[in-house]
Amino acid sequence: MNLKVQKRLASQILNCSPDRVVFDDDRLDDIKQAITKRDLKLLIGDGAITKKPGNFTSRVRANKLAGQKRKGRRAGPGSKKGKATARANPKQIWMHTIRVQRAFVLLLLEKKIITRAAYRELYLKCKGGYFRSRRHIKLYLQEHDALLLDKDAAKKLAVDNNEAKKSRKIINNKKPAEEKKDN
Q: Is there a contact between 20 and 4 (Cβ–Cβ < 8 Å)?
């Protein structure tokens, strides 16, 4: 029985190769009489014509690798291609550092460790890229006592880690809160 035409039409309907089209041996007479795409679609709906699963590449190994990369593995120097600026957007890095510094300077102002004028000076220095980190700001303030509101403030500068974490959380949580307001 020659079913070449039916196989070709069925492959067009199923959007696959004719080799993947399988006919039910019990319904071969019905399939032979089907000469239009409409007839073949009805037979596909009945289950007389089916599509064999493709021989695809297994994703098991790829999934395992992806899982390791999610954990931060496989990112050593031998795996890196491209400069640091290609791997991490310089703007994103700048945004992260400036937000941390600004939050810290604001915290100092709120705790009345620095004056308003000192706040402005530090803020502008942050903006100009003068400071490398929060620690650098602390060192700068210890060297320049005139910026401090009172001399005991140098002791207050040793802000405990919990408050530093809180200021970081505030920065990180501001963005989702703003997005929720927009929705």
A: no
CA-to-CA dists, residue 4 to 19, 54, 107, 110, 115, angstroms: 11, 20, 79, 82, 88
Distance CA 99, CA 95 (A): 6
Helix axes of 134-143 and 116-127: crossing angle, nearest 10 degrees: 130
pLDDT tens, position by position, 98-150 = 999 999 999 999 998 999 999 999 999 999 999 999 999 999 998 888 888 86
Q: Helices (H), strands (E): how many in the chain? A: 10, 2
Q: Which two tokens stand for residue 174?
A: 């501001």
pTM attached to this predicted model: 0.51
3-state secondary structure of 117: helix
